[in-house]
Amino acid sequence: FFFSSRRRHTRSLCDWGSDVCSSDLVIKAAFEDVQFTQGLRDSVPRAMRAALTPERIARLTLGAIRTTPYLLECDRASLFAAVLESAQLGLEIGGPLGQAYLMPFKRKVALVCGYRGLITLALRSGRIANIEARPVYEGEEFSYEYGTTPRLRHIPRWVEGRDAERDLVATYAVAHIVVPALQRTRPQFLVVSRAELDAHRAAQKVRNNGKETTWRDHFVAMSVKTPIRWLFNQLPSAGSEDLARMIEREDRIERNDEIEADAIVDTQAADNDLDAIVLEHAPAPSTETGDDTGL
Question: pLDDT tens across 70-88, in order?
Answer without folding.
Answer: 888 888 888 888 988 888 8
